[in-house]
Amino acid sequence: NLSTPRPKSGKTKTIKYNKEKPLTNELKYFLSRLEYKKIKIADGDSAVEVIRILEQATNSLNNRNR
């Protein structure tokens, strides 16, 4: 059951991530751009970051039961 945390013995690995609140950051960015400034929707760098985080999460889940 994936919803129940279970202790793991042995070596663990910490995944580094940005601890800021994503929705708060989006709102701050939007408000800063209200006066006719161009809004950047997304770029390649942000896409790569999302994929990197998803890969790490997937690997962590896959290795969890080994």
Automatic annotation (TrEMBL):
Name used for this protein in its record: Uncharacterized protein
Species: marine metagenome
